[in-house]
Amino acid sequence: MNEIQNHNLAANPKPISLGEWLLTLLILSIPVVNIIALLIWAFSRSTNPSKSNFAKAQLIFIVLVIIFAAAFALFGIKMGAMSV
Description:
Blueprint: H1 2-11, H2 18-28, H3 33-43, H4 49-82
Helix pairs in contact: 3-4
Keywords: Membrane, Transmembrane, Transmembrane helix
Transmembrane segments: 21-43, 55-77
């Protein structure tokens, strides 16, 4: 019976509490620290799967924003050079 209970605990980790989510968001509001925390949470095996997936999604979103910002900046520079 213990073996079954241990398997269920591993398959269904404890939900993240409201306080832990608030602390997570507080940490993510600190520049530079947020990227380091996201990397740790995304790739650490001991992190709750919900938080790990959240961190991976945030990292993907950050990369996409940087790519789009760079593309728009380059496009704007080229358009500005063409008007001169």
